[in-house]
Amino acid sequence: MRQEPTNAVNEEAIAWFVRTHSDQRTLGDEDRFAQWLKQDARHAEAYAHVEKAWRVAGPDITARPLVGARRLGKNKRLWIRWRMSLAAVLVLVTMSAYLASDIGGIRTGTFVTSSGQLRTLRLADGSVITLNTRSAVTVNLARHVRLIRLTRGEARFQVAKDAARPFIVDADSAQVRAVGTVFDVRVAERRIAVTLVEGKVQITSAPLLGKVPEPTLLTTGERFSLDTVGGEHHIETVNLARASAWINQQLIFDATPLAMAVEEANRYLPAPIAIDDPSVRNIRVSGVVRAGNVASFVATLESSFPVQAVRHPDGSMGLVRRTGDGKR
After folding, report:
1. Alpha carbons 34 and 321: distance in angstroms, whole number
2. Rounded to 5 degrees, what are φ and ψ at 36?
3. Residue 312 — left, alpha, or beta (φ > 0 → left; ψ -120 to 50 → alpha)?
4. Is the pLDDT of residue 143 over 90?
5. Rg of the chain's alpha carbons, rounded to an integer?
6. Would you say residue 291 has pLDDT above 60?
7. Which residues contact 282 (CB under 8 A, 6 or more apart)?
8. Residue 104: pLDDT above 60?
9. Fewer CB atoms < 10 Å away: N or C end of the chain?
């Protein structure tokens, strides 16, 4: 059964919002904030409510001169504390008003996730976006078109049917057009991948050397992969259960080279795991692990494969071949 954020969680979310938008925030604050988000699904939900409430009243609040600013100018530290306290009060009031009156879903805005965070966005048209770890998306529901820009990371789009307003996901080097369907888009360093879970989509790649590629139509279970540097693309059939595992915060590996498995696991970790021993890079690994759970990932590797983890003095972790195991 889904639990609603409590008043205490809402207050924590407000405090984190104020802190993360303060000029005085530190790297330590960002790390602690990421940990707080991962502790409980209600934390991310409450923080999303605060962000949304602030956007509703943000222009009115930020444009208004703060009474007493000149008088407190000589005492900078007191001024910062006073300003942050006032911001917290304003967020609380705005958030309370927002929670009391349903504004009908998201129409515009930019939304991000930190490492290990999964976030659900419910749009005003009935569509749902699920953001994966370290992702960013901008939403703009206009009168004649629903435009979504995925600038980094990965997201699933469950598109509500509306023939009069096409739903377009812009991933820079490619655009995905849908009317009513479910699909994933992932933007990596030099690759864009679109996986169709249900329905049909049309993909249009960006022009390359003056040539406009023909649109590509996908059917259920197909993945379109585009090399954003060279412009080459290919289509393959994928296992949808495995491709969709991230929705349930799982990672499924099936005879995957260790280097690729570590790269995928690192997307969800605040501190990446390194491969210190090149001889283990191509070991094929299989298993199901919890995304963002470094202990689960390492335990699976050490119990089933000739690999062991080593802690370095700086706290980082590396993988090497287990002592006594020859190459396989």
Report:
1. 32
2. -60, -40
3. beta
4. no
5. 23
6. yes
7. 257, 258, 259
8. yes
9. N
Q: Taking Cα atoms as reference points, which of 103, 120, 187 lies closest to residue 158?
A: 120
Write the pLDDT tens digit of every residue in 240-263: 999 999 999 999 999 999 999 999
Sign of CA dihedral 320, 322, 326, 327: negative
Domains and CATH numbers, the chain: 7-100 (no CATH), 108-242 (2.60.120.1440), 249-321 (3.55.50.30)
Between CA 239 and CA 229 the distance in angstroms is 27
Residue 277 structure tokens: 């021993």
To which residue do tokens 């997307």 refer?
267
**Residue closest to 239 by CA, chosen among 218, 260, 253, 259:** 253
Q: Which two tokens stand for residue 74?
A: 């000589």
Phi and psi at residue 291, to the nearest 5°: -60, 130
Which pLDDT score is estimated for 15?
A: 75
**Which 8-state DSSP code applies to residue 246?**
G
Rounded Cα–Cα distance for residues 174 and 144 (Å)? 20
Matching residue, tokens 């100018």: 73
* 291-316 burial code (b ≥16 CB/10 A, e <16): bbbbebbbebbeeebbbbbeeeeeee
How many residues appear in the chain?
Answer: 328
Strands 216-218, 201-205: parallel, antiparallel or unpaired by DSSP? Answer: antiparallel
